[in-house]
Amino acid sequence: MALTAEHVSFEYDTRDEAARAFSLHDVSVPVQRGSLTGLLGPNGCGKTTLLRLMAGVLRPRQGSIALNGRPLGGISRRELARHVAVVPQETHPAFDYSVLEMALMGRHPHLGTFQLEGPRDIAIAQESLAATGTAHLAHRPYMTLSGGEKQRVVIAGALAQLPDVLLLDEPTASLDLAYQLEVAALLSRLNRERGVTMVLATHDLNLAASLCDSLVLLRSGRVLAQGPTRDVLTGTLIQQLYDVEADVRFHEGAGHLTVVPIRRAP
Amino acid sequence: MTTSESTLARVGAGVRPIRTRLAMTMAAYGALAVGTCLLAPLIGSTTISLTRVFDRSIPFADNVDAQIFFIARMPRVLAGAVVGATLASAGVVLQALLRNPLATPFTLGVSAGAALGAILVISFGGAMALGPFSPVPLASLGGAFVAGAIVYALATRPGRAMSTSILLLAGVTLNAFFSALILFVQYMADFTDAYRTLRWMMGDLDVGSFGPIVGALPLVAIAFLMFAALPSSLNLLSVGSDTAATRGVDVGRTQRVAFVSAALATSAAVSLAGPIGFVGIVVPHLVRLMTGVDHRIVLPASALFGASFLVACDLVARTILAPVEVPVGVVTAMLGGPFFLWLLIRKG
Fold first, then answer.
1. CATH 3.40.50.300 boundaries in chain A
2. Residue B27 domain-assigned?
3. How does pLDDT run across A210-266, given as a tens digit for each residue?
4. What ipTM was predicted for this assembly?
5. CA distance readout (Å), A23 to A12, A26, B161, B275
6. Termini Cα distance of chain B
7. What is the CATH number of the domain that holds B229?
8. Cβ-based contacts of B91 with chain A (< 8 Å)
9. Is B294 on the interface with A (CB under 8 A)?
């Protein structure tokens, strides 16, 4: 499914100056069906805000966000959750749910208020755990897992929603190198095999280079540039985005562009 | 793919559907609650027999055992069951709403408001009476509503999710403020009234007849109807409010229903029996240790276990130093205080 932001502006309703930094101004981002779009930009540029707007958690002040042409405001929470799922940076449940319970909560939008999950829901949750390589952890308490295992379980919960669109907020931020590669491979596979459209906010330029077919560069709440990864991931744009000089070149072994930051631009 | 399929089959074998777990848990906790409520009235200064109580061949007017069972002891046992179930469920709901396993029904400041209302009437109400109703429960209900309304107004902002941190802070502040007012009123009151307020604050299930229980039932019923719609949303809310929203939960509405139902339940319980502490935290935690943390099981199981727990505590309260009665709030605190500390140590 295509998710389109058109001329979206948003400001947090607060007197706190610091929160102003996360505002967005006239942002238009067309996310094509089946694409894997990366959202890049410095801290406070509005990446998470844009994801929350796309997830329908926040409502834009101006402009609109539409799923296949339908504005999100006209879609109920439950229906939206059957199409769009979110993987937050970190998930800290207040109670000690098991891994299977965490995955089963992804079935919530498909169940009525008093409806309990049935065999089909359990099968979908287990399949989602299997797809993220965490099926063997099903009966472990979520809180006893490592960071990488937790993140994969949260992705499994989002997959159990059977979404067409998956929004991910720095999914690899707290993971070590091996888990970063593992999660990246998982996302790439889900995008390829299941046709899940993905939007991924990240600070990891090499992750974005390896995964994303298109990029959106956000700076101070405005779109600096967007387009296919090979066109947008350039030394010039990276310097404009982060005030950092970087060397961008194609890596034969990795098979994608790589970014090596050199120094802060004067 | 073959490995994941074999893993799937292995895991699938160990999964018991929620429907079965729920039925089994309800049967076990339900039996415990019924058993406790039937057993508790048999024990006391006069020992009576259950067979004699239900012996149809003796007319009720001549059946002393039945009279003691139904008239003297049953109202108190039922009050314990209603208050225990209500406080335990309100505890579960608030712990999920505030995403804090250490929250209690009294965290909201509702109980302190109830206490202030009750104490004002005890100290200054004199012989005030409103028809057949005793003024103290009504005043405590009024105090609870005022406190609840203040906290609610502070924590809700139009068109947005409730601020649970403001909810928590406002509740704690209001608790402290009302406690100070209570101390002041007690200081100004004469000796007898001060003792009565002190006794009220220790909690008392000796309601005298079925009347007060029936009076509290409409509020309790409304609260439980609201509770019934909450459990699966509470699961998600306790994982995180953004997660809940993106899984289809109307976060703002769920928070409002959770707050209002928990506040109603707590107000009803406190106006019936005074602020009986620790039930709302000990029971949910014990239940979670036994059943896991899924609110669809924890909430109804806590209601049933809360009923058994408070009836059992009250049995201890009225028999352990017989003929002297220990206030039931003292018994729950003696059990609950150390338990609470143990929870903190375990968490740390």
1. 3-83+164-264
2. no
3. 999 999 999 999 999 999 999 999 999 999 999 999 999 999 998 899 999 999 887
4. 0.89
5. 7, 10, 19, 46
6. 41
7. 1.10.3470.10
8. none
9. yes
Cβ neighbours of B19 in A, within 8 Å? 116
Give the tokens for residue B276: 């009986």
Q: Do residues B267 and B219 touch, judged by C-beta distance below 8 A?
A: yes
Question: Does residue B175 carry a pLDDT above 80?
Answer: yes
User: With an 8 Å Cβ cutoff, are B248 and A77 in contact?
Assistant: yes
Range of the structural domain that residue B116 is part of = 41-347
Q: Please report whether residue B275 resides in a domain.
A: yes
Distances (CA, A) of B256 to A7, A60, B264, B347: 33, 24, 12, 29
- Set of chain A residues whose Cβ sits within 8 Å of the Cβ of B240: 88, 91-93
B310 lies in some domain:
yes
How many folded domains does chain B comprise? 1
pTM of the model: 0.90
Cβ contact B4–A135 (<8 Å): yes
Residues A3-83+164-264, CATH architecture: 3-Layer(aba) Sandwich (3.40)
**Tokens 């902002």, residue?**
B157
Interchain CB distance below 8 Å, B238 and A94: yes
Q: Is B24 within the bounds of a domain?
A: no
Instruction: Please tell me the distance from the alpha carbon of residue A49 to that of residue A64, in angstroms, as a whole number.
Output: 14
The pLDDT value given to residue A14: 65
B125-163 confidence digits (pLDDT tens): 765 555 555 788 888 899 999 999 999 888 887 666 678
